[in-house]
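Annex B. Sample input.
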Amino acid sequence: MPPKRARRPAPQRATAILAAVTCAGLSLGARAGSATAEAPSTTARSSGPAPSATPADAAPDSASSAAASASAVPRVDLWADTGNGSHNPRAGLDPYPSVGRYVTYSIGFPVEALLDPGPPCSHAVERCMIGGGGGIALGAAYRDGGTSLGAVYEVTFHDSHSIYQRGVLEQIRGEWALHSRTSLIVEGVQPFLSAGAGFAVYGDNWAIATYGPTGSLGAGIEIELGVKLTATAALAYRPIYFKRFSDASGQERTAGFVHFLGLNFGLQLREPL
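Annex B, continued. Sample output.
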């Protein structure tokens, strides 16, 4: 039979049990702390990379960045007065078109009223071969300051009292005008005076039955519609000299002046030089 172990005394057994329980508690506490420390890293590894910002989230930042950039760019005033007018696109055109140099292109709608038929009709048996009429006019001019010099082509269709199928009067004139440098009526409206001379032909359906020199003396106003656009209204006296001729009815027409009063409404486009 194996020998029997000697039994420890009760105090020694209690001390050994207490030491064993203490060591077990310390071991469990250490493992619990290690598990707690590893939990955040495990969660971080399982969750993957953080999601990037969506376009909707980035839009406010982009808008604020663009606003900051725009506010940082210096503002350039294109209409500012630079002193010499070299960088001012309105130089010579504002506030009035009477300063600066530019070319004008015009279109008008003239009406010619017969004031006096003169010798071509006064000594004839038949009715007058020309009456009042209306048509279109095209022109161009060079303007420097308060004066302008240009040319106008005008064609008007006249009542011929059935002598002609269609009486056509064509005029080409050189015209000089003196423009006011300030608004004398209201702001943006300037008066002007004009004078001109040229050549005229008259006949049936663009044919030439008679011809002669013509003149013009008138006055009008310009109304600014924009930086480069104006409306015009003008009234002019125009004498036309017709040489001796025979009309379509066979009536002999004496040479002489025919007198008209012309009213023209038009538009002008100005191009600075």
